[in-house]
Amino acid sequence: MKRRQFLETIVASTAALTLPNTLLADSNAGSSGGKAEPANPDDSILWYQQPAKKWVDALPIGNGRLGAMVFGGTASERIQLNEDTVWSGGPYDPTNPKGPQALPEIRRLVFAGENLQAHRLFGRTMFGLAIPQMQYQPLGDLWLTFTGQSQANDHQRQLATDMGMITPKPVSDYRRQLDLDEAIVTVQYRDGGVTYKREVFASPVDQVFVVRLTADQKQKISFSAALIAGNSEQRDGDARYDAVAPNEIVVRGCTMSDEGIDGQVHYQSRARILTEGGKITAADDGTLTITDADAATILIAAGTSFVNYKNPNGNPESKIKQQIEMASAKSYTELRSDHVAAHQEIFRRVRVDLGSSESASLPTNERLDKFHETNDPSMAALYFQFGRYMLMSCSRPGSLPANLQGIWNDSNAPSWGGKYTTNINLQMNYWPAEPANLSDCAEPLFQMIADMAVPGARVAEVNYGVKGWVLHQNTDLWLACAPMDGPTWGTFATGGAWLCTHLWENYLFNGDTETLKKFYPLMKGSAQFFLNTLVEHPRLKWMVTCPSMSPEHFPESPTESVPFWDEVTNLHLKGTTICAGPTIDMSILRNLFGGCIQASEILGVDEDFRKQLQEMSPRLAPLQIGKWGQLQEWLDDWDDPEDHHRHMSPLWGLYPGHEITPRQTPKLAAAAAKLLKSRGDGGPGWGMAWKICLRARLLDGEYAYLELQRLLTAVDKDEISYKDGGTYPNLMNALPYQIDGNMGATAGIAEMLIQSHAGEIHLIPAIPKAWANGSVKGLKARGGFVVDMKWKDNKITNASVDSKLGGTCRIRSSAQISKVSLSNGNVSFTRPEQNLVEFKTKAGETYSIEAGA
Q1: Is the pLDDT of residue 32 over 70?
Q2: d(CA 241, CA 229)
Q3: SS3 for 76?
Q4: To pair with 495 at 20 to 30 A between CA atoms, which of 375, 478, 486, 755?
Q5: Greatest CA separation found in the chain?
Q6: Residue 157 CB partners (closer than 8 Å, separation 6+)
Q7: How many angstroms separate the CA atoms of 397 and 524, rounded?
Q8: Is 373 left (phi over 0), alpha (psi -120 to 50) or beta?
Q9: How many Å apart are CA 654 and CA 498, to the nearest integer?
């Protein structure tokens, strides 16, 4: 039997023994303090009374670069491992030089209404190598099999039970938890009169996984440890396993080939086991056995040969060895305290109290199951903080950005390849970064944009024959920027422009001109591409993108409503997505051009380029209201009022953009609301998350909360659904798992609590009745402000505003603000409107605000 099959047999057998809740109901064993009830159930503890049965039940940890899922077994433990540069294939060039010659004809066909012919020509001339792109891969697993405990032979005992020979004796006082405030997973239980405890974390300081095993009696820690590679026989067969005396396990391997491109990422994981007492024995198959230890600490370092998107030929071994050596020189107490301090510096920037209920004391899976009945407000706060925790755990300076999986993946063929999908998903991953006070966690995204501008410039030159840079619907580790996935998806060309709006938002929130100097050339390069490729619509006379699409939607065009065979992707689809000037493109470009204009003014550069943008911006196709009062998705009025499509693309200008607001553009806001209503409720997880954000921007807190309730529907099955989303017991976005649903909902909750896109800070603009009383600390607003606030009966009572940059502060509140003050006295303010106040601030000062009824 192969190594992987043997280990999976162990886990399959142990998973068969479920720990009955009736035997655990009186548990009082916690990870700290020995209490069963979490120390802070409102916003920092996920806990369970049983081990994870499936990957989607396990608990995530991460340090940005390294991620793991902890199952919490008793007879055995599986810790599934990831490293962010473990991807299939290697560097490749997907450009197609046929594009520039074909583009005029593609555009002519689109404008003539011959969309199907345009679609097919685009597929033949714009796609190059590796159309589906490369895939994110798992690093492997750490397996621990425990001996000397009554449950060690669960498989044999289960067989005996089935034969009527014995009655199984499950462990007692079991508790598995993730402490968001410490970023540590803890497993604790009693067996045979002994209390066993396990702590697991991924240190951002020491760049290693740390697993600590202890018991409340001496010489009770006995187990065997094995590292395995990847999650397929293909990769397992190529891996090499070594036990290095006296206490190390090393796995070396290479990722899989893909789309005809050889796998070129060589990876290594190295585990060192440090024991207190006991004995360590190494086996020829690369496993270590520990017997009769008082305690054990396992350190795992991992890395790959990936240097950058052009170079997969580095040697990770020396760095991995150094990481292990440096971590080994510390005590466990030092490793733990350094990790917690680094984590809390970021995590504790924000605290949320939305109220509580009796159900807050229940295990997290039970709270989720009952959320629709209890409307437990602290569950929403927990979910918000879990989203912040997830972004911190998979995106830190020096790591890669969060992909579709964040960083957590156990498959060589994850859903949609685990790629960086840029027609909503990658961007949604970073929506909470600024308002939720995680700006530094967006650094990996900004670095990727900077790197991507180089291959993006090659695609602009080769595929389009112009200057600037472009990114289409998807990219991967190798930063492929050309059209991919076939013309049904690949005509979307504003993915890079959308990403550049994140650069501008970072400046709006933080006001750092030095950072803006670095960002501006990237924004300019993207804008240059569109200045060079926008064309005048022959009938409407507006400047539009062409060819393009509105992700991932098929308009009911009169000339294209028959089934056809997609020659590139081999999918039988209805109609074609190809079009000119979809609403999303025009909104993104207005935002990008406006950001470039303002940035060039702030930096005092590029006056001529600025004038080009100022002349082009008013010529872009405007937002339009269609025949049934909806905001149009396309230039032509093709919208179907019964269409429940999952993408909210035409509403980009409402969120994440800000050209539509209920106060400043009421007719457009009403049209946006009309289209949003027609799209229906529910949908995939990321779709519901987007709807939360949109409803919040429409100041409809009750409907935003209704969508949040739908998103927090418990799902206990691991499958794919393109229509229905929900939440797994571990609070990860469901059906299938993608991190974007978590991130989008976290941003949506922030929008319900504070908005700052309309030139003012609006306090609790979309607060639902379920959160009638509460408080928030540390949310960020544009203009360099950090806001704390309290409210009662859905009205602000007091707030404080920390001004990082100085400048004028405008605050809107439904409760009339009566006083603004500093520690040395009152601050004068004006009242432009009844519910709006304005006052000048100084950098570094914190302003107290009092509000009445």
Answers
A1: no
A2: 9
A3: strand
A4: 755
A5: 87
A6: 17, 151, 166, 168
A7: 24
A8: alpha
A9: 14
Q: Which residues contact 178 (CB under 8 A, 6 or more apart)?
A: 45, 46, 47, 59, 60, 61, 184, 185, 730
Please write down the HEC assignment for all residues of 577-594: CCECCCHHHHHHHHHHHH
CA-CA distance, 172 to 465, in Å (whole number)?
68
The answer to whether 93 and 434 have CB atoms below 8 angstroms apart is: no
Spatial distance between the Cα atoms of 57 and 53, rounded to a whole number of angstroms:
6
Instruction: Give the pLDDT confidence of 556-612 residue by residue, as tens digits.
Output: 654 444 343 344 444 445 578 999 999 999 999 999 999 999 999 999 999 999 999
pLDDT tens for 509-550 read 999 999 999 999 999 999 999 999 999 999 999 999 999 999
Report the distance separating Cα 848 and Cα 845, nearest Å. Answer: 10
Residue with tokens 């599934």: 80
Separation CA 209–CA 302 (nearest Å): 9
Interatomic CA distance for residues 842 and 835, integer angstroms: 23
The one-character DSSP state at 309 is T
Question: Exposed (0-12), middle (13-18) or buried (19+): which is 331, by Cβ within 10 Å?
Answer: exposed
List the structure tokens of 538.
């022959």
Which helix (H) or strand (E) element contains residue 252?
strand 248-254
SS (H, E, C) 24-63: CCCCCCCCCCCCCCCCCCCCCEEEECCCCCCHHHCEEEEC
Q: For residue 354, what are the β-bridge partners?
A: none
